[in-house]
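Deliverable D2.4 — example input (structure tokens):
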């Protein structure tokens, strides 16, 4: 894999792109189309199906809103004086005090993404002061870290690192910065600083990639580190960061390779033997390419290039205009996505390790986001089932915590809130997955 990334910048995309901003849904029990979005800094093609069916955006129940508010209140109380948040050390999993350990970038990034999804930015919204501090914490961590280092923190042995991978901090920080930049104007005075930090993260992710597309330094469930690194590269490319397309393709191929759509077999060697962790990563990392395959066929049917009942396969994708190599890859992704999403939601898989840990929460999040990226109507059933599960295990103080491995209430609460509030980011997730011009 080359170390020098090819430029996937907004400048190169401009000829075929329009500005598509991230949006957030209003709080409350409302149906219907999303509100007019605020200006953001995301360049992408005009996507098939722009103007989502209002039925795709669910009404958020009063029970979920109450659970969210309790979670946010608890989370605010967990912020450390340096602006960051802490998950704690792996050797002290039994310690649930959020202030008993130094702040780490992975947990801080996860909290930051949850607060962004709640509708705030570093300048506006209920959580703007908190996000301003977390963002500065992350930027300083990236800027102080030696460029040759693969991670962005001198901390080792955190719960998140041991369970997910030694370099998970940089993947989650990159994901957060991409999400932040998608919500902020391109001419924001801090835009260049954010982009420099994001590019530093993508370079580290790409240098840490192994020959098979995974990220080195795997933890107990290292497949999740590799999956979130893939998500980070996708998101970074979406906002114009420097992403090596070959590295992104290899990362996706590794995740898809963990699931055989023909036999249903799952490779769990890097997933702690847990099927849920592997198939959620396969579903999430194949979602964008599967969406592309679906959109290409839909457009070809409308234009009369293929029959109205044409299936999604390599031959039909070629008929629709794709070259053979791209058609084979897109067809494989479509098959993996459609088979893996079923496995990821089956009763025998969804229990994960047997009880709830941070890894289970992250797997649920990846499955749900992949369904939305694909405009998959089954996301509604996933949301109803998953929110019911989360509401049933919320602690009396408003937090969530794991009962194995990642036990941190800070990390688990942030991830639970990202799941409960995913309805807020439907437009953003669909936009990120879209690749075909109308």
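Example output (designed residues):
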């Amino acid at each position: 894999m080359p170390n020098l990334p090819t430029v996937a910048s907004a400048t190169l995309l401009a000829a075929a792109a329009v500005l598509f901003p991230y949006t957030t849904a209003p709080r409350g029990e409302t149906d219907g189309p999303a509100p007019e979005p605020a200006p953001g800094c995301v360049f992408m093609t005009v996507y098939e199906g722009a103007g989502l069916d209002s039925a795709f955006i669910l009404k958020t129940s009063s029970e979920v809103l109450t659970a969210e508010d309790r979670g946010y209140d608890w989370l605010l109380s967990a912020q450390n004086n340096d602006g960051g948040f802490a998950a704690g050390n792996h050797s002290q999993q039994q310690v649930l005090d959020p202030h008993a350990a130094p702040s780490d970038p992975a947990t801080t990034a996860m909290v930051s993404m949850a607060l962004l999804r709640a509708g705030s930015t570093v300048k506006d919204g209920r959580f703007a002061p908190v996000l301003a501090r977390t963002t500065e914490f992350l930027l300083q961590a990236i800027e102080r870290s030696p460029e040759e280092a693969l991670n962005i923190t001198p901390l080792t042995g955190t719960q998140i690192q041991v369970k997910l991978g030694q370099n998970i901090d940089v993947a989650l920080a990159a994901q957060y910065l991409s999400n932040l930049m998608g919500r902020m104007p391109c001419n924001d005075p801090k835009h260049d600083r954010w982009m420099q930090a994001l590019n530093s993260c993508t370079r580290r992710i790409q240098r840490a990639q192994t020959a098979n597309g995974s990220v080195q330094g795997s933890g107990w469930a290292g497949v999740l580190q590799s999956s979130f690194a893939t998500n980070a590269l996708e998101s970074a490319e979406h906002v114009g960061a420097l992403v090596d397309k070959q590295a992104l393709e290899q990362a996706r191929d590794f995740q898809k390779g963990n699931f055989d759509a023909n036999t249903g077999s799952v490779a769990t060697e890097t997933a702690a033997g847990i099927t849920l962790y592997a198939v959620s990563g396969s579903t999430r990392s194949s979602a964008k390419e599967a969406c592309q395959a679906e959109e290409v066929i839909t457009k070809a049917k409308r234009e009369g290039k293929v029959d109205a009942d044409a299936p999604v396969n390599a031959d039909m994708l070629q008929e629709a205009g794709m070259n053979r190599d791209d058609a084979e890859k897109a067809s494989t992704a479509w098959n993996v996505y459609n088979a893996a999403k079923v496995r990821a939601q089956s009763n025998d898989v969804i229990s994960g390790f047997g009880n709830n840990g941070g890894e289970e929460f992250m797997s649920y999040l990846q499955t749900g986001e992949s369904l939305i990226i694909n405009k998959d109507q089954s996301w509604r059933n996933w949301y109803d089932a998953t929110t019911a599960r989360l509401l049933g295990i919320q602690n009396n103080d408003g937090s969530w915590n794991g009962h194995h491995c990642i036990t941190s209430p800070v990390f688990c609460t942030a991830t639970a809130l990202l799941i409960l509030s995913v309805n807020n980011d439907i437009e953003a997730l669909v936009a990120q997955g879209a690749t075909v011009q109308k």
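Confidence is low (pLDDT under 50) at residues 1-39, 43-50, 265-274, 351-355.
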